[in-house]
Amino acid sequence: MMEINIGNKKIGFHHKPFIIAEMSGNHNQSIDRAFAIVDAAAAAGADAIKLQTYTADTMTIKGAYQINDENSLWKGRELYDLYKEAYTPWEWHKAIFDRAKEKGILAFSSPFDESAVDFLEELNVPLYKVASFENTDWPLLKRIAKTGKPVIMSTGVSNLSDIDESVRVLRQHGCKELVLLKCTSSYPATPENTNLLTIPHLQQLFNCIVGLSDHTMGIGASVAATALGARVIEKHFTLRRADGGVDSAFSLEPEELKALVIESERAFLALGKVQYGVQKAEEKSRAFKRSIYISKDMKAGEVISADNIKIIRPGSGMESRYLDLVVGRKLQKDVPAGTPLTWDII
Questions:
Q1: Phi-psi label, residue 244: left if phi above 0, alpha if psi -120 to 50, beta otherwise
Q2: What's the CA gap between 210 and 178, in Å, rounded?
Q3: Nearest one of 38, 51, 16 to 101, comparing CA atoms
Q4: pLDDT of residue 1 exceeding 70
Q5: For all residues of the chain together, what is the average pLDDT?
Q6: Cβ atoms < 10 Å from Cβ of 179
Q7: 70-74, 89-93, 181-185, 313-317: lowest mean pLDDT where?
Q8: Is the peptide bond before 314 cis (omega within 30 degrees of 0)?
Q9: From CA 295, how far away is CA 50, in angstroms rounded?
Q10: In the predicted model, is pLDDT for residue 51 greater than 90?
Q11: Which of 68, 106, 247, 318 could form a disulfide with 48 if both were Cys (CB 3.0 to 4.6 A apart)?
């Protein structure tokens, strides 16, 4: 099974989930808040902090689109203005990456066009993330693949042929280490449209490490995904949802991110292997299984019957499976009540 080594971090089937805290626009245009988000992600135990590298002008043009979806968190907003509010200034990137390094976590980004890749290469990012909305942008995929660095790609808003073509483009242009994330590009997503059973199927189809880009509320879907083979979990992260911000409504808070780190590792450790029989950890517990005991004082020669034996804890006597074999037999010696029934006294 493939394993990816990035600095002192390992991503692979035999390692606990690699947890990515997605900052997105939750810095609310304050670099001090961006630093605080990095610090909080590191304190919670995340493996990495992720940015998004674009400008409003590299994403769209003013007047191109206004969001009218009744269910959208951003209804009524001009797309250009939304990106202008949400983008992370490029001049902040190095300082944020340096802060992450100080705190002992990785920092990387999702580039949204080729110029962003060129910029991130100058900062020597350790890996790249391809966002769902960019996963069919072949020129971008080719540019990212040519860096030769590991790639994590979300698979939202894509049919299977789209994913297959994009994986081929990445691999044909230099990507040797690939992670695919199941993703539902709905903000927030619901448990019902998350479809975690896709995760092992994705791994089988593309023979790569898989994970989940999770837009649901809470951590339940991510923990369940771990049990299904997800070894990368990406969640949007903020200091407090009440602080507002473009993605705050479906972002985790520090206490929740810490719980995700802990519970996803527990889920990973609990998978173990196929195991039957008595484990070493269970040896002492064997004493508390039931067995046959003499329940009344008995004399040598007396007949064992339902009236003078009981099946009780602990397990020092004969197992109850032998009940039919001992009823009607005689005792060889006197025994007091509370004596475990064993073959040598019959």
A1: left
A2: 9
A3: 38
A4: no
A5: 96
A6: 24
A7: 70-74
A8: yes
A9: 68
A10: yes
A11: 106
- Taking domain 280-345, whether its CATH number is 3.90.1210.10 is answered by yes
Residue type, 66: Q
Looking at the predicted structure, is the pLDDT value of residue 247 above 90?
Answer: no
Token couple for 38: 């990095």
Asked if the domains at 8-271 and 280-345 fall in one CATH topology, the answer is: no
Determine contact, residues 121/147, Cβ cutoff 8 Å.
yes
Using alpha carbons, select from 59, 44, 166 the residue that is nearest to residue 105: 44
Give the model confidence (pLDDT) of 67-84 as tens digits. Answer: 888 777 778 889 998 898
Smallest Cα–Cα separation from 112: which of 162, 63, 56, 37? 56
Backbone dihedral region for residue 29 (phi beyond 0: left; psi -120 to 50: alpha; all else: beta)? left
Q: Distance (Å, rounded) from C-alpha 133 to C-alpha 144?
A: 15
> How does pLDDT run across 261-277, given as a tens digit for each residue?
999 999 999 999 999 99
The model's pTM is 0.90
Q: How is the chain split into domains, by residue range?
A: 8-271, 280-345
Q: Tell me how far apart the terminal alpha carbons of the chain are, to the nearest angstrom.
A: 58
**Secondary structure of the chain as H, E, C letters:** CCEEEECCEEEECCCCCEEEEECCCCCCCCHHHHHHHHHHHHHHCCCEEEEEECCHHHHCCCCCCECCCCCCCCCCCEHHHHHHHHCCCHHHHHHHHHHHHHHCCEEEEEECCHHHHHHHHHCCCCCEEECHHHCCCHHHHHHHHCCCCCEEEECCCCCHHHHHHHHHHHHHCCCCCEEEEEECCCCCCCHHHCCCCHHHHHHHHHCCEEEEEECCCCCHHHHHHHHCCCCEEEEEECCCHHHCCCCHHHCECHHHHHHHHHHHHHHHHHHCCCCCCCCHHHHHHHHHCCEEEECCCECCCCECCCCCEEEECCCCCCCHHHHHHHCCCECCCCECCCCECCHHHC
The CATH number given to 8-271 is: 3.20.20.70
**With bands split at pLDDT 50, 70 and 90, how would you rate the model's confidence at 85?**
confident
Q: Return the structure tokens found at 26.
A: 């939750």
